[in-house]
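Think of the structure tokens as a kind of shorthand, similar to the way a musician reads notation: each symbol stands for something richer, in this case the local conformation of the backbone. In the example below we present two proteins back to back. Begin with the first one, reading the sequence and then the tokens, and try to describe in your own words what changes along the chain.
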Amino acid sequence: MRLAGDILLLIGAGFAFLGALGILRMPDVYNRIQAGTKAVTLGALAFLVGIGLLEPGWWAKLVCIGGFVLFTSPVSSSAIARALYISGVRPWRAPAAAGESGG
């Protein structure tokens, strides 16, 4: 179980890193919210399962934390995106490719 727990901790760290990289690399705030929410939520759940395998007595607490993360992360990112849209922040649009008509 130790090896599986360690592997899940590494997977969680990988997803957290990819989420942070997505936040840095995405072109607008809406893409950044999505990249951060999806990757970091999966990373947090992998962390929790890895910790649960390393510390079996903590499962009840970890399940509560996991449920809280699964419930609050999508709701909060949706609320932030809605507030941004209402305040006038428009989504990024890719520039037109050469040869395409702009009209």
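Once you have a description of the first chain, move to the second and do the same.
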Amino acid sequence: MTTTLTKSELESAEERDLGTSDWETINQEQINQFAGATHDHQWIHVDPDMAAQGPFGTTVAHGYLSLSLLPYFLSQVLNVADAKMGINYGIEKVRFTAPVPVGSRVRLKAALRSSEKRGEGVLYRIATEIEIEGSDKPAMVGEVLYLVF
């Protein structure tokens, strides 16, 4: 379920759980396209035969692929109704804590940590966790910042 706030409500919001996004399956085509876009063709990501003999037994998604899904996932948990524009403002801390094997389903678990007026906009901090279905460890944990106008 999406939390919808106005900029004014977001600016004065207390810390709150934003819930989870829908599950997204990570497939090999997506991993290959990410490898092509980033020029990161390491065999653990793009060579299923070699990866089958490697430490994870299959190909795994790039950690930065998990990170790059945040805007998509965040749009499912938070909507700033009167925002005309939003930008990625930065990353405070990110850790890639578990590999995402090809075929895994992942989703975002998010919480609003803080917000403040910044010029004509509102800067807000979100605690993020990319969960892997059936895994005790998340793929990624961190805090990200967004600025809406």
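Compare your description with these statements about the second chain. The mean pLDDT is 97.
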